[in-house]
Design goal:
With 361 residues, this protein is α/β, with parallel strands linked by helices. The protein contains eleven helices and twelve strands.
């Protein structure tokens, strides 16, 4: 064969091989690269305060990382669950920090102080703190404006508890709020909820209770029953996976509840009035994507109602369950208040700690 022809064939073969190796692995997925220059394996850890299956922040944040794994080659993600609650938090954070993960995302809320300590001990690891601002160079922080969505729940509760024509409403104007542990983000929920109740029913009473854990639905159920026995006809649980116990108690006692994070209106039809939606998948997906593509920054981010990070459901399930007894005027009023918040016409009280405006406790 002609030597020049052989040389041309070899050159074309090399060129085709080089082109085949660029851009993807042959399955349509881009290859992950932290600096946008060369392929590298990237591993991402997610540490949650409870367990998967909570229909709350653990599930939604993990969904965002599952989407990342589907879209990128050479990216692996792992979730560190905490079935024992607070007992698991620090060991999980340390394991993620020493396990070779490039990015560690934490649903910090109640474990903000622990994350701050661990992140300070591992300055070469990059972290994302959700719902607990941390002022360290290796930590990116973001906070959901839980007060805004919780305010709308409180507005509904304040109106709902006065309407004795609704089955299960006793007319005592008492509502309940229950959570796991006192933490800045939970205080933000509570501040917004109480402000909403006061806005629509100034003479209503809000009963508050703490279980001390997010992973014990039986305890949540018994403590919810205690609130109901004191006259509460609506319960707002901020309990992660333990919230199932609160909803079951409300269903058994014939009173009402609010759900959080993922739409659970149809899970407890006739019991859940509405769900305060909180889309954690957007947060984890965006942070992971930015880290992979080299555009990651540690600037503080605020995730509010106006940008669609939080919202409430349309109450269709409870409307169907109650039929003619559904108070359509309450829905109309609350949707008007929702729009006022989005338009900046209505400001909702909040806990300054969750927005980095005060030193973290």
């Amino acid at each position: 064969m002609n030597k020049k022809l052989v040389a041309v064939i070899l050159m074309l073969t090399m060129l085709m091989g080089a082109l085949a190796g660029c851009g993807d692995k042959g399955d349509g997925k881009p290859s992950a690269s932290g600096d946008g220059a060369a392929e590298e394996n990237i591993s991402i850890a997610l540490c949650v305060t409870g367990t998967l299956g909570d229909k709350a922040l653990a599930d939604t944040t993990w969904a965002g990382l599952q989407r990342i794994e589907e879209e990128y080659d050479n990216v692996t993600c792992k979730v560190f669950e905490a079935p024992e609650g607070a007992t698991d938090w620090e060991p999980n954070l340390v394991a993620a920090s020493t396990g070779g993960y490039d990015l560690v995302i934490v649903t910090a809320s109640s474990m903000g102080a622990i994350l701050k300590d661990v992140a300070g001990r591992f300055p070469d690891v990059t972290y994302v703190s959700i719902d607990s601002p941390i002022d360290l160079p290796n930590v990116a922080s973001c906070t959901f404006c839980c007060n805004e969505a919780s305010f709308l729940l409180g507005c509904i509760a304040g109106l709902w508890t006065t309407r004795t024509e609704i089955p299960g409403v006793n007319g005592e104007k008492i509502v309940g709020w229950i959570s796991g542990m006192q933490a800045p983000i939970n205080d933000d929920y509570y501040i917004g909820f109480c402000a909403g109740v006061e806005y629509t029913c100034p003479d209503a009473t809000v009963l508050q209770s703490w279980t001390g854990t997010y992973s014990d639905p039986l305890m949540a159920k018994e403590m919810t029953k205690a609130l109901i026995s004191q006259g509460a006809d609506i319960i707002s649980p901020v309990l992660s996976s333990a919230a199932v116990g609160a909803h079951e108690a409300c269903r058994e006692q014939g009173v009402y509840s609010f759900a959080l994070d993922t739409n659970q209106d149809a899970v407890y039809p006739g019991t859940v009035i509405t769900t305060a939606l909180k889309d954690g998948s957007v947060v984890t997906y965006n942070y992971a994507k930015e880290f992979i593509e080299g555009t990651f920054s540690t600037d503080f981010r605020l995730l509010n109602l106006s940008m669609g990070a939080m919202d409430i459901t349309d109450m269709v399930e409870i409307e169907v369950a109650l039929g003619d007894e559904f108070p359509a005027d309450i829905k109309e009023t609350v949707m008007e208040l929702r729009q006022q918040i989005i338009d900046g016409e209505l400001e909702v009280p909040y806990n300054p700690v969750v927005r980095g405006e005060a030193a973290a406790k």
